[in-house]
Amino acid sequence: MKRRNLLEMIMGGGAAVALSPKETQAQVRVERATRGMPSPKIKDIQVIATEPGGVRLVVVKVITDQDGLYGYGCATFTQRADLVVPAVEKYLKPLLVGRPADRIDDTWQMCYNGSYWRNGPVLNNAISGVDMALWDIKGRQVGLPVYQLAGGKCREAADCYAHASGSEISEVIDSAKKFIAEGFRNVRVQVGVPGYAGYGSTGTQVSAKALHADPVFEPEPYVRRALKLFEACRKEFGEDIGILHDAHERVTPNQAVQFAKDSEKFKLFFLEDPLSPEDLAYFRQIRQQCSTPIAMGELFNSPHEWGPLISERLIDYIRVHVSQAGGFTPSRKMAILGEHFGVKTAWHGPGDVSPVGHMANVTLDLVSYNFGIQEHSPFNEHVQEVFSNCPVVKDGYFYANEAPGWGIEVNEKAAAKYPFGTGEQGQRKKDNGGWGVIRRRDGTVIKQ
Question: What share of the chain is helix, strand, coil (3-state, %, to 5)?
Answer without folding.
Answer: 45, 15, 40
